[in-house]
C-alpha cells in the first residue's frame, strides 16, 4: 500500500507504518478429537491478550534515481 501511495502521489515523500505484533496460537482441540496443533492442520486460533511490540516500516521516494 505504501509503495502505491508514494508512486501515485508525487508530492508524498514517504509513508510509514507502526502496527502491533499480535500473536495467535492454535487451540488444543484433542479433547473433542480434532487435530489442531500442527501448522498444516491448525484452523482455530486464540489471540494473545497483549501485543509483542510493534512492527514498523517506511517506504520512501528515491530522489537520486533517474526517471
From TrEMBL:
SUPFAM superfamilies: Tetrahydrobiopterin biosynthesis enzymes-like. Coiled coil: none annotated. One of its GO terms (biological process) is urate catabolic process. Pathway: Purine metabolism; urate degradation; (S)-allantoin from urate: step 1/3. Gene3D superfamilies: Urate Oxidase. Keywords: Oxidoreductase, Purine metabolism. InterPro entries: Uricase. It holds the Pfam family Uricase. Its EC number is 1.7.3.3. GO terms for molecular function: urate oxidase activity. This is factor independent urate hydroxylase. It comes from Phellinidium pouzarii.
Amino acid at each position: 500500500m505504501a509503495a502505491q501511495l508514494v508512486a501515485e502521489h508525487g508530492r508524498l515523500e514517504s509513508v510509514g507504518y507502526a502496527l502491533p505484533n499480535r500473536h495467535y496460537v492454535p487451540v488444543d482441540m484433542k479433547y473433542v478429537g480434532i487435530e489442531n496443533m500442527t501448522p498444516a492442520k491448525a484452523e482455530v486460533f486464540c489471540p494473545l491478550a497483549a501485543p509483542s511490540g510493534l512492527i514498523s516500516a517506511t517506504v520512501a521516494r528515491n530522489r537520486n534515481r533517474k526517471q
